[in-house]
Structures are given as structure tokens and as C-alpha cells.
């Protein structure tokens, strides 16, 4: 289980996150919602260790990760698909996927079949440069790269941003298959309410860097949406 307790983080003199507490269990898709600029990506970076916590803690399966480097967190079983994908444009698709193995607990040297099976178009593009792919193809590559290490926690920061509807459907199917396996905890940041409602189990809403609301799908009603999400 991923457990974030009273987390505080920010940039320079600015505190962005304030006493954020949330949990994600294996087989559960937890969705983090909120208007632009409320701290969603900051929270993902803080969980991954890319941004140092100023207070509180991040733990996985009872192990405190708060002071561990991003690479150590990745090797503990946390996979990350960042906003904007951040694939290596000059490297081939195959080379990008191999980089995902750096976080593998088993020191694997070959890309797991299950990571590629979820995105069957990728093997056809192994020799193409990552920078030559479309946005949707890059998103599939970033997702498969994260899955290559067989993570037990998967952080997804707006995986549907700026991609065509057909690939959005593919990503929805992949998340559903991960969920059905019951082994991986998924924390998802996504702007599309329709998308998160179709796959989410539990929801947290950030407002001004703090958790303003949490609840299940049945509780995420029109009133909550108007109050915390409508622009």
C-alpha cells in the first residue's frame, strides 16, 4: 500500500502542498482531481522523490521512502509516467524501453512480454526514434517504459493529455487490465471526469494544495463537481 501522510512540499519559498494525506491499495485505481495549478503534479513529483518533502512522509508497504532518492523509490516498486511523457527523443523506441529496466528489482535485461503486449504497435516501431513518434505513440511508449520494471505502484500524470480518442481508449483498457490483475496500486491524475469515472475506485480533490474532498464514485456528484472542479 502507498501511504502519503501530512505531506508538505513546494518550490523555493512557496509551499504548494499542505498536509496532504492519501492511500492507494493494490488493485485500486485512486484518482487525484482538481483545477489547474492546485498541486497535482507537485504531489506526484513529491511521491516520486523528484521534489523533496518539507514535512510529512511517503511510505510503501510500511517502508518509509521520504528521504530516498528517485532511483531508490523506483527500484522499490514505483513506476511513473510523467505529464508530458518525457521520453528520450534521440533514442530509439527499443532503447527507451530498455531504460525502463533500470528500475527493475530483478535486474532484468529483456523487456517483459506483458509490458509490450498491452501496446502491440510498439514492436513495429523499435528502430524509430522516440522524437519521431506522434503524441499518442509517445504516451504509449512512456506507459510501456514504466511497466517494463513491473511496478507495484504506478503513478500516471495526465496520461490522456493531448492524444487522440482511440489511444485514450487503449490507455483506459490498459488501466482496467492492470486493475483486474489486483496486484498494482494506481494513482491517476487526469482532467477528464468521464475518463476517471469510468475506471476510478476512490477520488481525492486538491484545492490550494490541500485535500478538500474525498470519496467513492457514488459520492462524486454534480454538487461536488461544481464546487471543486468546474472552472
TrEMBL record:
Keywords: Amino-acid transport, ATP-binding, Nucleotide-binding, Transport. Residues 2-231 form the ABC transporter domain. One of its GO terms (molecular function) is ATP binding. PROSITE patterns: ABC_TRANSPORTER_2. Pfam families: ABC_tran. InterPro entries: AAA+_ATPase, ABC_transporter-like_ATP-bd, ABC_transptr_urea_ATP-bd_UrtE, BCAA_Transport_ATP-bd_LivF, P-loop_NTPase. Belongs to the ABC transporter superfamily. NCBIfam families: urea_trans_UrtE (TIGR03410). This is Urea transport system ATP-binding protein.
Amino acid at each position: 500500500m502507498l501511504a502519503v501522510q501530512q505531506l508538505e512540499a513546494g518550490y523555493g519559498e512557496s509551499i504548494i502542498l499542505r498536509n496532504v494525506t492519501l492511500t492507494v491499495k493494490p488493485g485500486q485505481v485512486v484518482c487525484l482531481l482538481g483545477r489547474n495549478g492546485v498541486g497535482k503534479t507537485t504531489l506526484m513529483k513529491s511521491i516520486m522523490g523528484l521534489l523533496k518533502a518539507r514535512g510529512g512522509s511517503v511510505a510503501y508497504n510500511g517502508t518509509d521512502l521520504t528521504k530516498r532518492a528517485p532511483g531508490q523509490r523506483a527500484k522499490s516498486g514505483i513506476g511513473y509516467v510523467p505529464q508530458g511523457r518525457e521520453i528520450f527523443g534521440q533514442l530509439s523506441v527499443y532503447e527507451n524501453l530498455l531504460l525502463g529496466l533500470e528500475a527493475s528489482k530483478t535486474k532484468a535485461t529483456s523487456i517483459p512480454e506483458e509490458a509490450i503486449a498491452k501496446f502491440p504497435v510498439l514492436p513495429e516501431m523499435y528502430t524509430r526514434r522516440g522524437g519521431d513518434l506522434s503524441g499518442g505513440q509517445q504516451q504509449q511508449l512512456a506507459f510501456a517504459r514504466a511497466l517494463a520494471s513491473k511496478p507495484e505502484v504506478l503513478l500516471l500524470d495526465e496520461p490522456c493529455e493531448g492524444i487522440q480518442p482511440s489511444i485514450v481508449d487503449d490507455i483506459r483498457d490498459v488501466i482496467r487490465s492492470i486493475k483486474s490483475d489486483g496486484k498494482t496500486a494506481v494513482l491517476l491524475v487526469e482532467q477528464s471526469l468521464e475518463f476517471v469515472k469510468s475506471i476510478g475506485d476512490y477520488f481525492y480533490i486538491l484545492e490550494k494544495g490541500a485535500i478538500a474532498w474525498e470519496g467513492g464514485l457514488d459520492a462524486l456528484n454534480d454538487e461536488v463537481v461544481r464546487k471543486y472542479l468546474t472552472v
